[in-house]
Automatic annotation (TrEMBL):
The keyword Repressor does not apply. GO terms for biological process: response to antibiotic. It comes from Ancrocorticia populi. Keywords: Antibiotic resistance, ATP-binding, Nucleotide-binding, Transport. Gene3D superfamilies: P-loop containing nucleotide triphosphate hydrolases. InterPro entries: AAA+_ATPase (IPR003593), ABC_transporter-like_ATP-bd (IPR003439), ABC_transporter-like_CS (IPR017871), ABC_transporter_ATP-binding (IPR050763), P-loop_NTPase (IPR027417). It is a peripheral membrane protein. It holds the Pfam family ABC_tran. Residues 6-232 form the ABC transporter domain. One of its GO terms (cellular component) is plasma membrane. This is ABC transporter ATP-binding protein. Belongs to the ABC transporter superfamily. GO terms for molecular function: ATP binding; ATP hydrolysis activity. It is found in: Cell membrane.
Amino acid sequence: MPGTVVDIQDMTVKIKKKTILDNLNLTIEEGSFHGIIGPNGAGKTTLFTTIQGFRPPSYGDVQLLGQNPYPRNIDLLRVIGIQPQRSSFFPKTTLKEHLSVVADILGTSRKRVDHLIDELDLGHAADTKVEQLSGGERQRLAVATAIVHQPKVLFLDEPTAGLDPESRRNLVSLLQGADLDGMTTLYTTHFLDEAEQLCDVVSILDEGKIIVTQSPRRLIAEAALGSTIILPRALHQADILAEHFGTELVRVTRDGVEVRAQDTAKLFVDLDRLNIDTGSAQVRDGRLEDVYLAQTGKDFVA
Ligand SMILES: Nc1ncnc2c1ncn2[C@@H]1O[C@H](COP(=O)(O)OP(=O)(O)OP(=O)(O)O)[C@@H](O)[C@H]1O
């Protein structure tokens, strides 16, 4: 049976008297890819920094690999990997020099550097200066830097933030295929489609509390969300749709009006009766985004 890597019991974190995390309970299993999902300001980064031992809980208890991470626990810092922010790079070194220096500091072999450059598809940029790397290359270098010493626990805080859609897709497929050596990964993102693809388990964080922890597929299945029909030409009829189907099943998005239904065929019949133009309608199955709405009563706004 997998062990527990993170064990949080009744933990509250206050910053300047404001409660950021509110009586939180969470366990993270060894070897899992665990996503923390929540909107801007939900407290995801605060949760990470508390688990990493950079801030103490105000109340309650947090254990990382069976130890107390605060005050800074050097034994733990050696076995965790934190994706560095842009400012932590050596800008004038090449990508390979940068990774080699980090590997030397952490006592890891140069062979591991070559392996990671290959695995994260960075071979073409190995001799490029860090300051000249593209956004996608920098993010991949950040991941390589975090895992160079084969940590037991990896923290990825929005690894695809700021990337164009193609670079994002690339990094997600690299993370999916990456040999993370049985590491336990804690991950945050503003992209729920990405979380659905990558995570074994997600926790939804809302107003400082974790309201559910479960595998994305099971959450979607258990929520019995049915399908969503997207009606790009019905924006001017949103009120009629909301009145007929109920506001909880209808929402207006950039792409048109979305209506959720268990029985898609019947919904089309009802839409015809209401004279709604279904000509360019699209149908999609339930997604994590819909679970978020069902669980929190709010649209996911990153
Ligand atoms: N040092 C600080 N001083 C004051 N308030 C803070 C501090 N650090 C965090 N906060 C507040 O705590 C709340 C949670 O912030 P946090 O960065 O953990 O959220 P987040 O979910 O990671 O957000 P984002 O998705 O925008 O990165 C926010 O309201 C933020 O303003």
